[in-house]
User: Fold this.
Amino acid sequence: MRGVISTAILAFITYIIFTGSAKPYDLFTGLIVAVGVGILVGKFLVREDSKALNPLRWIWAVIYFLKYMLIIEVKTHLDVMKRVITGKYNAGIVRVPINVKTDYAKTLVANSITNTPGTVVVDLDDKYLYVNWIDVTTEDPEACRREISEEFEKFAEKIFE
Amino acid sequence: MIAFIWSVIILTLIATIMISLYGISRRPNLVKKLIALTIFGDTANLLVVLLGYRLIYPVAPPILPSLSKEALQTFVKTAVDPLPQALVITAVVIGMAVNVLIAFAIVQIHRLYGTVDTRELSKKLIQVEGGEQ
Amino acid sequence: MKKLIPITIIILIIFGLAYVMSGKIEPQENVRALGKFYLENSYFGDYSAKSPEVVTAILWDYRGVDTLFETSVFFLAIIGSLTLFRLNKKQEKEAKERIEKVEELTLVIKTVTKVIVAMILAVSASIALHGHLTPGGGFQGGSALAVAPLLIIAAYSKYALEKQGLDKTRALILRSIGLIGIALIALLPLTKGGFIMQNQPIFPWLGGSLIFYNFFEYLAVGAGFTAVFLLLAIPEKVFKKILGVGE
Amino acid sequence: MNELLFYIGAIMIIIGGICDLFGALGLLKFPNFYIRLHAATVGTIGGAVVPLFGVGFLALGSDFLGGMKYAIAGASFVTGIIVLLAASAGAHALAYAAHKSKLVKWEPKCDHLEGDEK
Assistant:
């Protein structure tokens, strides 16, 4: 029964927020749906329940989300908008080393890189991410890592490892 | 001014219907014909929903806000017409069914003849018929 | 530049005609009589359907037979599509076997798909089960539900879905359960002296039997679409081999 | 408080409109697929996720909606989060497929992936 509880909690929270009310009917059907979803897909989603239910990781996730949306996204959006007006680009695909190990941490890093305009992950393997970067200032992998993904990895380690 | 905007919206929808009719009749590609047909159906549905809209402020969706007789009075005064919406739900479902069927037919045509262009398709069909005779 | 000219002409015609028209037409400000009847009667009046959501009340009670036949049209279309792609038993087995190593997408997409599938299942159930309170209902929820198997087919493969036990036959069985459920609940009022598809106050605080209609329609539409997607996902190479069409 | 939420939501929707405009301009102006992808990201995050959150805040601040305001707000927040997760995976899948099929002709400054695959 691994993963059922944590998946059910995710489904329950989604259900209640989407419904937008917490009457007994909503709570009751939400519970049934959540347990059903947990049994159906839980075993594919979560490997360790204790890790998924750790509140400290959730707090870090919220802090990361706020910082990501408010600071990092704004900076990169402004940069790409400037490039749209001037039409200057210097694109290429660079190699970026990645240190995190678990699937979710890798996904978080790759998604964060893709969601910031100006960088798109093209492919990934065990050691490297291949990032399509709009402004290649350096081709050295370590320097690229400092420019692109260091901050994301720091948080990914705290949240998922 | 409001009447002007109202008529601009209606005329725009009618113009979209005309353009999609042009697409259905004049484009040779079957997939593009299907896309034009989808646009045609959706625009017609939007036109029907628009006929049920009320141009007042504030306007409410046709859902009772609370289960009391007092709420019913203001509700009837502000809510939009529910009948076109219910009809449009029916129309959307049937439009989707038709789209699924047509899409399957197009996929099958592509598998059998290797093309979705009506001009080439007619040539190939003539070949097939000639071969059988 | 060449494309701009017709667009400009169309826009000019629209604004000109609107200027002429605007003095003559009246924007819609009142509801028609029939709409007012539905608004007044859906919960409180003499012809009550016992649902605060007027659109759902019209859909499943006042014009219930319409909806019944609409559902049957939809499923006739799905049956028609299945007939177009008909395979016999041997061919179906052939289509289920992996021919070669299937190329799957990268780790990132797979992980995201897992999380999104769980969220979509919850959201679609919420849309369907609140059809009697908020906009939405069985068909909308079912369409949202069908996105989940579609995502799995795109990110993993059709074979992964079949390995977990959701193949075409099971999807068709689920769809049939949904349709039979709708039919049974539609016939239920006849035993109590009502007319066909009348809303029954089985659970008055839940809007009567609307919730059952919505739930069964949700099941039927979701499973029907899943069957269609599973058929569409058979690789073209396999299909050409089965049909005997040259490469 | 309601006023504040309302104005935050309205500003976010306006930001979304501006981002969409720039995304569309970028799609027209940039020369090839890989660089257009960056403009498309502006359209999905700034142009879809931010206005969806904005609609949520705006609905929370509008009292005339009555009990429906929580339903509207909740639906837009959940949709925003799903788009936030799915958009990045979609952009990544597009880039992966384009590089795999080698259909796009461009002259990058450097292409380490191609070097590593050989």
Notes: Chain D has one domain: 2-117.
